[in-house]
Structure formats: structure tokens, C-alpha cells
Amino acid sequence: MPHIRRTQHLGLAGLLIIAVAFTALQLTAVTGRASPDSKNYLSYALSLSGESRAEAGRRAIAYSCESGQHAPLDTIPWTSRKAAGETEAQCVRRLTDSVAYWTRNGNTSGMTAPFANQRFMAIFEARPGYPLFLVPFVTAFGAVWGLWLAGLLVALAGAVCILLTLRAAGASRRAGLAGAALYLALPTGTVAMNPLSDGLSLALGTVVVLGCTLLLRERPSDTSGAGAGRGAEAAGTRTHAGRWAEAAGLRVGAGRWADAAGTRTGAALVVGGLALMFLVRYSQALLLAAALAGVLAVRAAWSHRKGRRSTPVLRAAGLCALLAALVYAGAHLLSWPMGQDSAQDLLTHHYQRPDRPDPWPEFFARERVFWWAWLKRRATYPFLPVLLALSALALGKRRSAVLPVAVGAAAAGLLNQAGHPNLDQLLGHRLIVFVWLLPVLAVPLLLDRPRPGGSSPLPAQPKKVGGGQRDGTVRVVQQAGEGT
Prior knowledge:
Blueprint (H helix, E strand, L loop, with lengths): L1 H25 L11 H11 L4 H16 L19 H17 L13 H8 L3 H40 L4 H13 L1 H7 L3 H20 L3 H4 L6 H19 L5 H7 L2 H43 L5 H23 L5 H9 L12 H21 L2 H15 L4 H17 L18 H6 L21 E2 L2 E2 L15
Helix pairs in contact: 1-7, 1-11, 2-3, 2-6, 3-4, 6-7, 6-8, 6-9, 6-11, 7-8, 8-9, 9-13, 9-18, 11-12, 13-14, 13-18
């Protein structure tokens, strides 16, 4: 017991050090993070808090223009933060005139201020979850500190989910803390801090990843038969529950954590995470659910071909596929903008030009241009390719329930970026940010020594027959979190 408590304290201390260091670094840039879309979300949140639409727009303009006066941060490479040489007063005048223009031209309803035409602003009206999340922060602390604190909470919550995911998959405390640190140090941490819906969507995505990992991991009861492996099965269950307690730093009973970390908990996290994500950024929720369903279906087929148990993977794939269908149906029933609208938005400069009769040929031409430019930039700045190569090494050397889930999350990031082949986003990470979850979850696994065959060294006890024991090979009970 003293050893367990000491381990818990070490885990908590490590997580606390990471959180404090990240918070201290973020204090160097409390403002200066706003993108052109930040004012839309802020005005929506202020309207929800009780401000009039006009006052919400005025305060959002003030925040955006004040933020724009700060020197751009290297880690936040927005390309159109402000007009060249524009003062704060000129910025306020420009945006105020824009609001007046669009109000005169029919944009007189909705929760967001009329910064653009009503069709474009409908994109943000269809994302109520993030403004609703911001309400208590901007009400209590104002726009600048409220948005900063909301971003900090979102970033730290995502890091904790990454740590729990790795621990649930059987990784060591060291690997879990490394994953949390990577999440905050890589563009995932930067995107989480930005005053946009992408950060909250990413944090909810880590909740879904945690849930899927719980669904996929093989618990001792899944891999042992009745009788022969009961002793090791019970020991494995207690060990895994202890890991959860150690990862969370909570002194709770092993049985209690074992119940909390079951497949029902995993399913609840997947459903709840995607449901909330639907309100925050439904397009990303759809892509994440669909990508996970596809990757897990392929994984199940591969496991079946190898003669391995594929039922948990199939169930997880089926759940994600069902949720993807529900997300799509929900967005359609609510008449929220869909893929066709996104293509027209790109090609008509936010609907300020006539719609294309057939947007897809030009859209796919933009795809080719964007991805060629993206590959050339990756060749110049190969940080992401190096991390992906290390992730591929982990995929080849480790067997873990988290790896197929990480691949599915990365695929969702690629799909999201493919839906927005805008060269203005070439330097940024927010649209493709889910790709970074692959190295965040895979690279820390390289810190742990691989177990031979992905199995626990604890053998099952030989079954007794009468006064003696049955001869034969003693099975090895697979460790929870390995395999699948």
C-alpha cells in the first residue's frame, strides 16, 4: 500500500509540473491569439450571456482589434490577422462599418453579430456548443482573460484524457506523462489555447479516443477461460484497476475503478464525447466517427484473418458507424451547412460571389494544388513527418489498443483538412490538428519495453483434478490493455 501511494504521488506530481509549466508559458501570451473567426464566437457567447446583439458585436470588435495589435506569435501563424499597418482605431472603424453594411443588407437575425452575410454567419450559428461553453468565462472574467482561461482548461483537460488513454492501454506512468506533455507542447496545445471551436472539439475528441480505447482493450476476463486462469485473472483485474487509480492519482478501491473502466464506461465516453462534439463542431464529429468506424472495421477484418478475437473491435466500429449516421442525420434535420455549402464557401469567397453550378471539378483542382503545396512545406519543415515515422515505428513494434484508435483520429484530421483545401491554411494546424494525435499517442509507447507476444509474464494456475494437477501447457493470461 505505501508503494502504491508513493506511485500515485509521483504521477500527480509529474502531471502537476507539466500543467504548471504549460500555464506559465501561456501567461506570456494572454492576448494576441485572435483569428478572424474569434469575434464570431465571442459575439455569440456575449449574446447568450444577455448582451444585445449590437453590444455583443461592439465588444467582440474591441477584443479582436486589440488582439490584432500584438505581434504575431510564431506558433500561431495566422495569415490575415489585420490589414498591414492598421491601427486599433482603424480596425474598429473597419469592422464597425462592415457590421452596419451587412445589417442594411438583410443580416438582422441570429446570435452572432452581422460581420458578414447571413449565409456565411450561419456556419457559426450551427456551432452553439463553444459559445455556450464560453459564457461563464467571459461573464466572470471578461473577454481577454475569459477566453484565455477557457483555452487553458480545454488544453489541460485534453492532456489528462491523453494520459488516461495511454494508461488504460497498459502504458507506463512515464509514457502517460510523456503523452500529456507532447499534447501540450505540439500544435495540439496551441490549437487548444486559441479562441476558436477547434480546441474544444479536439478535447472532446480525446474523450472519444479514451472511450474507444476502453472498448478495444482486452481485459483479463476476455482472454482467460473459466477455472484455469481465474487466479491470474483476478490478479490482472486488480493490477489494471490499480493502474487507473495510479494514473488519476486517486485513492479509490481497485474494484471501484475496475467497474468504472469497463466497456460501458467506454461506450458512454464515445457517445457523450461525440454528442457534445456535434454541438461544438458537427463536421469534425462526423469525420471522427466515420474515420474511427472505417479504421476499426479494417482492424477487425485483419484480426479475424489472423485468427484473433475481433468482436470488441467490431462492436466499437459499429458504434462509431451508428453515431456517424446520427450526426449526419441530425445536421441534415437542423438544416445546418453541409459539404456542398463548404465547397461553395471556399470557391465564392464566403458567398460574396455567385454560386458555382457544379463546384466539384474546381474544388478537386484546389485539392491537388493544396496537397502538393502541403507536401513541399513538409519537406522543408519535416517535424511532422519525423513524428509520423516514429509513430509508424511504434505501430510496428508495439501491440496496444490505443494504436488503431490513434490512426482513426489522424485520418479524421486529414479528412477535415481535405474538406478545406485553402492555401491560407497552409501554415496553420487547426484544421488538420487531429493528425497530431497519432504521435501524441504512439510515440510515448516507445518509452516502454515491449512484452514478448504482448503478454503478461504471469502464468495461469494449472487446474487441479482430484488430488493432483492436470498435465499440459500452462496458458499465459494476456495483460489488460495489450492486443486488439
